[in-house]
Amino acid sequence: MRRTDLVVRPDGVLAASGYLTCQGADLVRGTAASLRSGGCTRVVVDLRGVRAADAAGLAVLQQLRRELAADGCELVVRGAPTRAEGVGFEPTMGVTP
């Protein structure tokens, strides 16, 4: 079974590792919703530790981006796996130095 691990770092970034499946992305979604309900206006998800992502996992992140935007919150995805490029998650999308 492919697994996604998720850690909320002290700086508030959600760091995912392993394989981003639908279930793993749903874990990201739930954690992001908790941050949003706590007043967060920008959710940063770091995917540099993700080895691969399936289409269903990426679709969940796309939906999360739309949901957060509708609520006035920004979703920033860092280090998207190569498979994610071209579907709205470029490696450093939304990140400023």
TrEMBL record:
InterPro entries the UniProt entry points to: MlaB-like_STAS, STAS_dom, STAS_dom_sf
STAS domain: residues covered: 13-79
Pfam families membership: STAS_2
Protein name: STAS domain-containing protein
Record organism: Geodermatophilus pulveris
Classification lineage: Bacteria, Bacillati, Actinomycetota, Actinomycetes, Geodermatophilales
Coiled-coil intervals: none
